[in-house]
Specification:
Helices cover 49% and strands 15% of the residues. It is an alpha/beta fold. The longest helix is centred in the middle third of the chain and has 17 residues, at 179-195. Bound molecules: guanosine-5'-triphosphate (GTP). Its main location: membrane.
Length: 281
């Protein structure tokens, strides 16, 4: 992802900057039209002759102002499991991210239970099961095409009975414009609320950084159905430029909580905005 911005800076080191070109380049970096225009306006306002380093500095300051300073990793609750619902459109990396998050929490000394509530895709259940066995983390699953809400319901009981710190619920991929699937998601949400009225405590939307502005649209639509408490941005190791997480924060106020940097279970980390800005620029 850093490569994109590096080449951007190299292109704008000459004194006669083409502002439209710069704005287009920032948008291409998934920073969104609003933020890109703000950055360009800010640069134009500055009387001094700009060169590449200034552009980096101004862009960095803008991004810093938007992103929260402190990382917001998941923390446990006292006396009950913290319920985390993992949602998103198809193929963004929900199952992989759920397994990675389970691994990270487990490594941090927490007790985790997994709910394989993607009953639609048998491979997703198998995939999560492999991780659950490998990581030695209990998992609850249902029959193929069974009711995902009842899988979460049962998994909650197991998590509660065994004194787990976290219950992570992987859900099926769904397009935000498919009414029935979104209703199903609301049902999962509602059912979890019956076990503990404050549950789910976290709703994390998984977005694929390589899909650019589609990810913003997904966040917007899912957030209307169920308020999101955070985003997991995957595939930042690929062609994803990372700017999208800044745009989601700016447009919707939803922070990025974790980032995926590869297919391996360790290639996942709590989002740290300071580090992100340094690496991005
Ligand atoms: N390079 C890279 N690949 C990733 C990352 N996260 C997930 N993937 C890959 O993306 C593909 C889809 O991941 P899944 O976890 O199956 O996606 P999903 O959202 O659960 O899929 P559905 O259940 O079909 O919606 C897999 O090949 C993963 O290995 C990442 O951070 N980087």
């Amino acid at each position: 992802m850093a490569g994109f911005f590096k080449s951007l800076i190299q292109r704008f080191t000459k004194p006669d900057i083409d502002w439209d070109d710069l704005e287009a380049a920032l948008i291409a970096g998934d920073l969104g039209p609003r933020l890109s225009l703000q950055i360009v306006d800010d640069l134009k306002d500055q009387a001094r002759k700009l060169h590449g380093a200034d552009i980096v500095q101004v862009t960095r300051e803008h991004i810093r102002k938007i992103l929260p300073e402190a990382p917001k990793p998941l923390t446990r609750l006292e006396g009950k499991p913290k319920v985390v619902l993992v949602i998103g459109v198809n193929g963004t990396g929900k199952t992989t991210s759920t397994a990675k998050l389970a691994h990270l929490l487990h490594k941090g000394g927490h007790k985790v239970v997994l709910a394989a509530a993607d009953t639609f895709r048998a491979a997703a259940v198998e995939q999560l099961e492999v991780w659950s066995q490998r990581l030695n983390i209990p998992m609850v699953k249902g029959p193929p095409n069974g009711d995902p809400a009842s899988v979460c319901f049962e998994a909650y009981d197991l998590a509660s009975k065994t004194g787990a710190d976290f219950l992570l619920c992987d859900t099926a991929g769904r397009l935000h414009n498919k009414h029935n699937l979104m209703e199903e998601l609301k049902k999962i949400h509602r059912i979890l609320g019956r076990k503990d009225s404050t549950s789910p405590h976290e709703v994390l939307l998984v977005v694929d950084a390589t899909t650019g502005s589609n990810a913003l649209q997904q966040a917007r639509e899912f957030n209307k159905i169920i308020p999101l408490s955070g985003v997991i941005v995957t595939k930042l190791d690929g062609s994803g430029k990372g700017g999208i997480l800044v745009t989601i924060q700016q447009e919707l106020g939803v922070p990025t909580r974790y980032i995926g940097l590869g297919e391996k279970v360790e290639e996942f980390q709590a989002f740290d905005s300071q580090r992100f800005v340094e690496e991005l620029l």
